[in-house]
């Protein structure tokens, strides 16, 4: 992408409403813009990362045999009355009435709707097992939305639903989802710990939340430190094997790890004291098994092998797709900005042309841009006709703080030439450095900060290219100091 044709409205200052790192950096990097409380417009950079996250979720769901579909955001209230949840769900549900006075709602989840689809088209045990999922926008009217996309009212969510003949098969689907989720999060550079949790309004006795440890997490968690050493890695397992999926579940859930809602102090005290940990966590997903909670009242039955009609066993499984972007930033940043894991980085590398209009520099940058795209990389090419220091300063959500430097161009707008000359004579006498030295040092300062800080486009090393910021310079007075690459100036992201 050429930056001259891109929409990237970065901010100079920290927004007053941003309370946590992810919210602040997303606003400053021009990824989102608040539309109303808890509702955001996704600008090009944020939307690009969101789609990368969504693609990983799709790939991992389909890897284990789950089938995508798409359900509407608006649902009939009659379906929710069938299940008994319409009046129980509370004020978080947005209820509306259409012009025909029919009660509707903006779906916070889709158990009723997917059950209606199933009962309309499936009637035999021969069609089972079946797992359907979709990625769709949801709405929950949070009483106090905050922390940007971490706790917004409108959010993008993957929710999947399994239908099985027996409890044993349904629990296998539960275990299979846990395996799929572990691989999904690791591809995004996250370690999400499955923790025994409360089922809330969805219901069911078996449920695990996946939490990413972060100081800004809204859930208090208690866990055995050994669990943080577990990695799923690149292992291949048979997702149809009950034993293989159960083994992974046992490996990742046998150690103590619970949220504050299900915390058991007596069990926690059985963990060796040196391994007991208390922290905060960000919920990025949850899996449920709730048996026949929805199938019985809504008549979702199939004919078994003996000709009897039996209700199917169900589970639901969610991933907060839009929340994941905030969680990634919370878990992967430093004082200088975002450190993008390779799987979700918006751009793989940056090209900065410091001598726009110079035939040699333009040709080198254009050729490099075309070569990187041919390799399957997605570079961001800064081809704007801006001064070098301004180009370098632009590449970062925190925007290197150069406000304390008074640029000569601004002085000249306020003073006459005689005053300008007097200003620089006085400065040379005081510091031993004149106007050209000042300009040269300004560019050096910008480059130095670009070398040492990870910018908005920090990436982990790609298989086909190193981490780098590529600069093309001409032979002008200022750019003589810049005729060198930035020593692969983008340092690698923290290894997951």
Explain what the structure shows.
The chain is of the alpha+beta class. The protein has helices at 21-28, 44-63, 77-83, 111-121, 167-187, 242-253, 265-268, 295-298, 321-331, 359-374, 388-394, 408-414, 417-431, 435-452, and strands at residues 32-36, 39-42, 67-68, 74-76, 94-97, 103-106, 130-139, 154-164, 192-196, 206-213, 219-224, 257-259, 276-291, 301-303, 309-311, 313-320, 333-334, 337-338, 349-353, 379-382, 469-472. It is built from 14 helices and 21 strands. Helix 2 packs across helix 9 (321-331). The protein starts with 20 loop residues before the first helix and ends in a 24-residue tail after the last strand. Residues 397-415 and 449-496 have low confidence and may be disordered.
What's the helix and strand layout?
Layout: H1 21-28, E1 32-36, E2 39-42, H2 44-63, E3 67-68, E4 74-76, H3 77-83, E5 94-97, E6 103-106, H4 111-121, E7 130-139, E8 154-164, H5 167-187, E9 192-196, E10 206-213, E11 219-224, H6 242-253, E12 257-259, H7 265-268, E13 276-291, H8 295-298, E14 301-303, E15 309-311, E16 313-320, H9 321-331, E17 333-334, E18 337-338, E19 349-353, H10 359-374, E20 379-382, H11 388-394, H12 408-414, H13 417-431, H14 435-452, E21 469-472
Parallel strand pairs: 3-7, 19-20, 19-21
Antiparallel strand pairs: 1-2, 4-6, 5-6, 7-8, 8-16, 9-10, 10-13, 11-12, 11-13, 13-16, 14-15, 17-18
Helix pairs in contact: 1-9, 2-5, 2-9, 5-6, 11-14
Major β-sheet profile: 9 strands, mixed
Oligomeric status: single chain
Shape: elongated
Determine Rg (CA atoms, Å).
27 Å
Number of strand segments: 21
- The overall pLDDT, averaged over residues, is 81
Helix content: 25-40%
Beta content: 15-25%
The count of helical stretches stands at: 14
Distance between the termini: 28 Å
Query: From the helix content, strand content and strand pairing, which structural class follows?
Result: alpha+beta
Low-confidence stretches: 397-415, 449-496
């Amino acid at each position: 992408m050429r930056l001259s044709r891109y929409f990237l409205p970065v901010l100079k200052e920290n927004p007053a409403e941003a309370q946590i790192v992810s919210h602040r950096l997303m606003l400053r990097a021009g990824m989102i813009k608040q539309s109303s409380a808890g509702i955001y417009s996704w600008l090009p950079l944020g939307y690009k990362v969101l789609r990368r996250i969504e693609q990983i979720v799709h790939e991992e769901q389909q890897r284990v045999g789950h089938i995508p579909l798409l359900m509407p955001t608006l649902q009939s209230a009659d379906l929710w009355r069938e299940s008994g949840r319409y009046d129980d769900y509370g004020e978080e549900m947005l209820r509306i009435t259409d012009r025909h006075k029919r009660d509707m709602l903006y779906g916070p989840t889709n158990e009723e709707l997917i059950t209606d689809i199933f009962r309309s088209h499936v009637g035999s045990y021969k069609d089972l097992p079946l797992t359907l999922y979709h990625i769709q926008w949801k709405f929950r009217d949070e009483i106090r939305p905050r922390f940007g996309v971490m706790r917004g009212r409108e959010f993008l969510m993957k929710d999947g639903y399994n239908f099985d003949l027996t409890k044993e098969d349904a629990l296998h689907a539960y275990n299979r989802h846990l395996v799929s989720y572990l691989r999904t999060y690791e591809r995004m550079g996250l370690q999400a710990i499955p923790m025994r949790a409360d089922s809330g309004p969805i219901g069911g006795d078996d449920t695990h939340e996946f939490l990413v440890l972060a100081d800004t997490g809204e859930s208090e968690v208690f866990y055995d430190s050994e669990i943080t050493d577990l990695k799923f890695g690149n292992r291949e397992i048979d997702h149809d094997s009950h034993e293989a999926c159960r083994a992974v579940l046992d490996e990742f859930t046998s150690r103590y790890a619970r949220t504050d809602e299900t915390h058991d102090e007596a069990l926690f005290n059985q963990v060796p004291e040196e391994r007991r940990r208390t922290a905060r966590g960000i919920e990025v997903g949850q899996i449920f098994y709730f048996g026949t909670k929805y199938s019985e009242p809504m008549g979702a039955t199939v004919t078994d092998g003996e000709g009897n009609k039996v209700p199917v066993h169900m589970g639901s499984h969610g991933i907060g797709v839009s929340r994941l972007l905030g969680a990634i930033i919370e878990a992967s940043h430093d004082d200088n900005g975002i450190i993008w894991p390779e799987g979700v980085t918006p751009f793989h590398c940056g090209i900065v042309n410091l001598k726009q209009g110079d035939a040699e520099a333009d040709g080198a940058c254009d050729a490099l841009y075309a070569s990187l795209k041919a390799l399957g990389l997605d570079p961001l090419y800064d081809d704007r006709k801006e001064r070098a220091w301004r180009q370098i300063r632009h590449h970062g959500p925190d925007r290197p703080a150069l406000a304390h430097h008074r640029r000569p161009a601004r002085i000249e707008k306020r003073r006459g030439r005689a005053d300008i000359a007097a200003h620089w004579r006085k400065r040379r006498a005081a510091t031993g450095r004149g106007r050209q030295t000042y300009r040269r040092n300004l560019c050096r300062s910008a480059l130095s900060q670009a070398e040492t800080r990870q910018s908005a486009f920090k990436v982990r090393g790609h298989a086909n290219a190193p981490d780098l910021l590529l600069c093309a310079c001409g032979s002008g007075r200022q750019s003589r100091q810049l005729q060198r690459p930035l020593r692969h100036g983008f340092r690698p992201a923290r290894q997951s």
